């Protein structure tokens, strides 16, 4: 244990964010980087539990108590070595992970959890600053080649592990640049893209080849890749957005969150001018439909673009602020989240059903809404029931649908290979991540459905392990 009385002597202290008045003027990261001394004090709170539930809750199985103790003892290099054994991109999860580990921390039972996510970020950035994160190519190559389609976190993690095993890796990406939703879906104020570029450059130096602007299944056939490569890995993500097919959906000024965020991120990167003025928020009344993290990201972008007013609505009830008996420790609780974007200005409404979009001259101007009750039947299935006489209107010039994703794109590679799908429409695999087509594997959101970055990395790592076994048969 780092400090046997550390959890009694020190309180949880998060490093926090830059001031709202400052950060709302730019797209730089809002979160501050904890100092080494701040992190040392926070690691002292780790109790090194007999059963580390933080480790149990982490999809990557990070050795959390161990690297907390190492940091407390100023053994930062050893802490980074241990962290990088289980996590390919700790500098990214340290910024974006929802931190299942913290909600499973034993201190969470009757106190505040250890600042595990911030500690992870501090270790990663300390290692980069010290020059410990080096590009090391495999000493020996196997002669086997693997093509990976998609450069999001699952594809990158899979490529990284397979490259370490000595296989030749080529990553194909349909977009202009690499990173998937890390680049085009996550705003810079949460993840500045130099962080992503820094990691991809190291992967390049280690021997991984990256090819952009190539949609496998269109520009190049999957069948051709299967002749050239020993394996084909599908890591293209869950690309079909959930729509809201109600009257007025065809009005201009209504868009999916991914289209809104992608244009915004490209503008910040200086890649293009505004392509679609109808989905730029300056001077507009913005309504974000969907109360999740993506909706919150859209709120933050809209405020930075100079929106006149931002409202976020959610169909489900307002979550509780503290754990309820229905979600006891160490489970991950569905609690009310107030993000940095919400702090910057946003009205939030719960239990609101959007019934119709109203427009004028082909452009959206209002939403017709109603209040609802959420009822559960005997099987636990939620049913939405509109409350009579509660209709109201919300004025809007821009409506962003942040309702999540349904399943992967089927046009192109999935259709060409005639892959079997599961009941949710995702690519079906066996326990070894192989699809219904021999030598074709799938991982990440394409296989498990819409999920989180930490799960995508875990999927990519596991998939790489099974591919290596397959190639060595």
Notes on the structure:
It is a single chain. The protein is α/β, with parallel strands linked by helices and 473 residues long. Helix content is 34%, strand content 17%. The strands form four sheets. The protein has a five-stranded parallel β-sheet with strand order 3-2-1-4-16, sandwiched between helices. The protein has a five-stranded parallel β-sheet with strand order 6-14-7-8-9. Strands 10, 11, 12 and 13 form a four-stranded antiparallel β-sheet that branches. A hairpin with a 5-residue loop joins strand 11 and strand 12. Helix 5 packs antiparallel against helix 6 and helix 6 crosses helix 9. The longest helix is centred in the C-terminal third of the chain and has 19 residues. The protein is globular.
């Amino acid at each position: 244990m780092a400090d046997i009385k550390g959890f009694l002597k020190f309180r949880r202290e998060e490093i926090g964010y830059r001031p709202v008045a400052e950060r709302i003027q730019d797209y730089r990261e809002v979160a501050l980087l904890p100092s080494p001394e701040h992190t040392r004090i926070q690691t002292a709170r780790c109790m090194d539990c007999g059963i580390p539930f933080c480790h149990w809750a982490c999809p990557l199985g990070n050795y959390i108590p161990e690297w907390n103790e190492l940091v407390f003892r100023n053994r930062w290099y050893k802490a980074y070595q241990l962290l990088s054994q289980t996590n390919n991109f700790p500098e990214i999860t340290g910024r974006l992970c929802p931190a299942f580990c913290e909600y499973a921390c034993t201190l969470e039972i009757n106190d505040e959890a250890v600042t595990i996510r911030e500690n992870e970020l501090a270790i990663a950035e300390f290692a980069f600053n010290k020059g410990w994160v080096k590009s090391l190519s495999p000493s020996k190559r196997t002669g086997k080649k693997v093509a990976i389609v998609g450069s999001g976190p699952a594809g990158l993690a899979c490529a990284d592990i397979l490259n370490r095993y000595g296989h030749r890796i080529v990553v194909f990406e349909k977009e202009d640049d690499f990173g998937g939703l890390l680049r085009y879906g996550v705003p810079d104020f949460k993840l500045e893209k130099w962080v992503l570029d820094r990691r991809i450059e190291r992967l390049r130096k280690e021997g991984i080849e990256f090819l952009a602007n190539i949609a496998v299944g269109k520009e190049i056939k999957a069948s051709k890749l299967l002749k050239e490569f020993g394996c084909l890995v599908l890591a293209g993500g869950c690309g079909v957005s959930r729509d809201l097919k109600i009257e007025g959906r065809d009005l201009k000024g209504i868009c999916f969150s991914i289209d809104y965020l992608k244009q915004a991120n490209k503008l910040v990167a200086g890649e293009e001018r505004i392509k679609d003025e109808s989905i730029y928020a300056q001077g507009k009344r913005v309504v974000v439909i969907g109360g999740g993290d993506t909706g919150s990201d859209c709120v933050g972008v809209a405020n930075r673009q100079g929106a006149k007013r931002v409202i976020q609505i959610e169909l489900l009830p307002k979550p509780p602020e503290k754990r309820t008996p229905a979600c006891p420790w160490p489970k991950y609780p569905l609690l009310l989240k107030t993000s940095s974007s919400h702090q910057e200005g946003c009205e939030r409404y719960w239990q609101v059903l959007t019934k119709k979009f109203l427009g004028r001259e082909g452009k959206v101007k209002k939403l017709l809404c109603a209040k609802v009750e959420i009822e559960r039947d005997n099987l636990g299935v939620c049913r939405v029931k509109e409350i009579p006489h509660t209709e109201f209107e919300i004025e809007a010039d821009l409506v962003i649908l942040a309702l999540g994703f349904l399943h992967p794109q089927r046009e192109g590679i999935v259709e060409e290979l005639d892959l079997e799908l599961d009941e949710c429409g995702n690519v079906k695999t066996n326990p070894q991540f192989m699809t219904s087509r021999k030598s074709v594997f799938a991982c990440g959101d394409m296989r498990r459905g819409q999920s989180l970055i930490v799960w995508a990395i875990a999927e990519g790592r596991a998939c790489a392990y099974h591919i290596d076994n397959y190639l060595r048969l």
